[in-house]
Amino acid sequence: MASLVELLLLGFATHAVAQSIEGLGVSGGNGSRGGIGDGAHVVQHAQAFITDAQIPTSPNTTRQLARGPAPVLSRINGTTGCGPQRNVVINTSPNGARQEMLGFGHAWTDSTVEVFNSLEPAVLDQVMEDLFGQSGNNMGFMRHTIGSSDLTGANQYSYDDNGPSFNEGEPDPDLANFGLGPYGTAMAQMIARMGLYKGDVFLFGAPWSFITTDGNQYTLLNNSLNINYIPQAIQYFTKYIDAFLEQGVSVNGLSLQNEPLNYQGGYPTTFLDAADEAAILNQGLGDALHDRGAIFLAYDHNTDQPVYPYRVKQGARDLVDAVAWHCYQSPVANYSVLDDFSYAFPGTLQFMTECSNYLPSGVNFEVAQNFIPPVQYGASGAAMWVMATDPDFGPHSPYGGCDGCLGSIIVNSSTVYTKTNDYYMIGQFSRFVRRGAVNFQVLQGNEGSALTSNQFYVLAAQNPDLSWAVIFMNNYGSDQNVVLSFSDESGQFWEGVVPNSTVTTWLIPSRIRNYGVSLQFYLDYHIIK
Ligand SMILES: *[C@@H]1O[C@H](CO)[C@@H](O)[C@H](O)[C@H]1NC(C)=O
Ligand SMILES: *[C@@H]1O[C@H](CO)[C@@H](O)[C@H](O)[C@H]1NC(C)=O
Ligand SMILES: *[C@@H]1O[C@H](CO)[C@@H](O)[C@H](O)[C@H]1NC(C)=O
Ligand SMILES: *[C@@H]1O[C@H](CO)[C@@H](O)[C@H](O)[C@H]1NC(C)=O
Ligand SMILES: *[C@@H]1O[C@H](CO)[C@@H](O)[C@H](O)[C@H]1NC(C)=O
Ligand SMILES: *[C@@H]1O[C@H](CO)[C@@H](O)[C@H](O)[C@H]1NC(C)=O
Ligand SMILES: *[C@@H]1O[C@H](CO)[C@@H](O)[C@H](O)[C@H]1NC(C)=O
Predict the structure, then answer these.
(1) Which amino acid residue places its CA nearest to atom 14 of ligand 2?
(2) Which whole number is the average pLDDT over 385-396?
(3) Is position 246 annotated as part of the catalytic site?
(4) Which domains does the chain have, with CATH numbers?
(5) Across the strands, what pairs with 103?
(6) Ligand 7 within 6 A of 478 CB?
(7) Starting from the edge strand earliest in sequence, which strands make up the sheet with 47-52, in order?
(8) Of 14, 113, 179, 265, which shows the fewest CB atoms inside 10 Å?
C-alpha cells in the first residue's frame, strides 16, 4: 500500500511546470538519498537558518547556517516586530508554478582533486560528507573540467596529447592515443567517491580546450576550432564519457566548450562559433550524447551575448536540452535574458553554471546574487566555480586565468581544512531545495536589482514533500519584518525577522499539515473525488 506521503504527492504535486527535469539520468527528490524536504525527510515544523554575509576574520564570530527564530504562523496580516513590514506573497495560483529544480553546487577542478588527494583518508571522508552528505551541503548539481583549465597547475594537458606535453604532440586524427591520463583518471576516481555520499548528483563536463587550428589540442595564439576536425571532436567527447563510465562515473551532461567566446592565450581556451557548436551536434555528437543518457548544455558563457544559445538552438533544435550561463558580464550579469530564452523555447532547461568570488573580503553576497535571480528567471540550478583550493587559491595556471578564485574548501594541510563563507552561502540553497522542487513566482516582496544598492531577493521553492524552502537575501541595510503569504489562500501568514546583511532560509511545512485539516478529509476530498 502506498504511504500517506506518496498519496499526498500523487494528489498535489500536479502543477504544470514549463521546464521539467524528467529523464536527466538522475533520480527525483524522493527517498532516503534526497534529504530535507523529500518524501522520506518531511519538514514537520517551521525552521530558519541564517548565514551572515560578513566574512569572519576569526572563527565562530558570525552565524553560519545557524538556526534562528522560526517563522510563526498567524491569522493576522501584521508583525510584532518594530519597523516597517515587508509583505512577501508567493503566487500559488496555477500560473505561479515555474520550472523544476535540479540542484545547486560547484565545479570539480584539478586543483580540487589535487588538494583533496593530499588529505588523509579519514579527513577526505569528512570533506566529502561536508560537501555531499545529508549532514553537509548535500550538493546535487556539479560541473567538472575536461582536460586542464586555469585551475590546473603548471602541467596543461588534454585527454589526447600524443606527445611530450600539451602543446607539442603530433596530430592524432584517429584518436588512437586517447586516454584520461593521470589527471583525468585522478579526477574520475575522486568524482566516483561522490557517489558513496550521494547517489544522484547531476554531473556535467566542460572542456577549456579541445581540438584547435592545427589538429593539435592547443595553440597559444590561435586557439579556434578547425571545422575539418569535427569528426575527431565527436569521438573525443564520446570516448571521454565512456572512459569516465569505466571509472564508475555517469556523466549526465556535456557543455561543448567553456566560454566559447573567450579565446585569450595564456591558459586553455577555444573560440567556438555558435554555428559550429550546432554543426558538431548535428553531425553526431547530439545523438551520441543522448544514446549515453547525457544531455547537451549550449553556450556556457556570459549573459551579455544571449544571441549565441539562440543560434545553437535554431541550428540543432532537438539536440539542445539546456543552456548554461555565467555571471561575469560587466558590470553585472543580466539574468532577465533567461526569461527571454524561456519565452522563446519553453521546454529548454537553463542553469547558471559559473560564478566566482575573487579575493573576497568584507561582505559576501556573491553566491545569493548569482543563485536567486537566475532561478527567478527560469534556471533549474546554479553552480559556483572552483570547489576547493590550497591557501593560495591554487594550484592554478601560471600563465593566466584565475589567481584569486575562492572555493568552498581551503585545504591547509593533510589533516586541516577550512570551510569558507561561500560554503555556508551555498548550503543555504543546496541543503534545503530538493531535486524535483518547483520554483514559484514571487508576486510581492522582492526588491532591488543588480543595479540598485538596496536588494531584498526572494526565492520560493516547493519541495517534493510539499513543504516550502523560502530563501531571502537581505542586502537592504536593515532587519526586515517579513510577513509571508500564499496568493491562493487568505488569512494565513508566516511572520518573522530576516536579519540585516544575511542570507536566511525558512522551511515551512506543507500547508495541509498545518491548518488543522484532517489528512483523511483532505485525501477523501482531493484524491478520491
Ligand atoms: C515521489 O514519489 C512518488 C511515489 O513514488 C512519485 O509519484 C512522485 O513522482 C515522486 N516525486 C518526485 C519529485 O520524484
Ligand atoms: C566553532 O564552533 C564549532 C561548532 O559549534 C565548534 O565545534 C568549534 O570548536 C568552534 N571553534 C572555535 C575556534 O571556537
Ligand atoms: C497585508 O497587508 C499589507 C499592507 O500592510 C498589504 O499590502 C498586503 O497585500 C496584505 N496581504 C494580504 C495577503 O492581504
Ligand atoms: C585562426 O585559425 C582559424 C581556423 O583555422 C582561421 O580561420 C583564422 O584565420 C586564424 N586566425 C589567425 C589570426 O591566424
Ligand atoms: C537586460 O536584458 C533585458 C532583456 O532581457 C534588457 O531589456 C535590459 O535592458 C537589460 N538590462 C541591462 C541593464 O542591460
Ligand atoms: C587555512 O588557510 C586559510 C587561507 O590562508 C586561512 O584563512 C585559514 O585560517 C587557515 N585555516 C587554518 C585552520 O589554519
Ligand atoms: C546592515 O548591514 C550593513 C552591512 O554589514 C551595515 O553597513 C549596516 O550598517 C547595517 N544596518 C543596520 C541598521 O545595522
Answers:
(1) 60
(2) 97
(3) no
(4) 4-97+437-528 (2.60.40.1180), 102-430 (3.20.20.80)
(5) 381
(6) yes
(7) 66-68, 47-52, 502-508, 468-475, 455-462, 438-440, 97-100
(8) 14
